[in-house]
Amino acid sequence: MARRRIIAGNWKMNMTPSEAVALCGTLKDLVKNDAVDVVYCVPAIDIVPVVEAVKGSNVHVGAENFYIEDKGAFTGEISAPMLKDAGVEYIIIGHSERRDIFGENDVLINSKVKKAFASGLKPILCCGESLALRKAGTYKEWITRQITWDLDGITADQVKELVIAYEPIWAIGTGETASADQAEEVCGLIRELIAKLYDQATADAVRIQYGGSMNAGNAAELLSKPNIDGGLIGGASLKPDFGKIVNA
Prior knowledge:
12 helices; TIM Barrel
């Protein structure tokens, strides 16, 4: 089954609103590719200007985080209905930085996946192992547990619509990259797990990204692997090189 490629930029805590609009202008002609879903996942303060800046282009807008309640006394948080109303289509859930720095666990992440679907947002669900787990050889069990918890109560039809991003934590922002074979091994494992949890049709439909220092130099090799359907790009999404990854 041919899955549509998806290349998403995770801007993290970078780009003021004016810088964000300028970057959209720089990237506009570089990311044109009607065969690929291109997504900019941007800081909350940049969402409104970025939605405006990419109007009429092939770019979709995503957010980096949200809270599970629709509204209320949650100072500093942003809700799924707010994001949806602002023009957001995708939402990153369970990024290692949210897990490690902000203490988000799989129970909360599972609630976020459910809330995203209930609100009409498409989750980009992240999973991945630390260097210690990679060296210990227990990374497969770790990722299996993450995905199993995070998708608890999620239907097969919903899973077909979400995106799973495999991000080895040891390769995020370090310049280290999993080899294409290492990345393919885990993305294949995730697809096999989805087949076990659901069925083969669901496993064939779900899109799995690799994230972790994908760049213009290694994107083509990574994207040539049968189970890698795209990339979740950090630092390289803030540069013109992002266009080379989209068109790799």
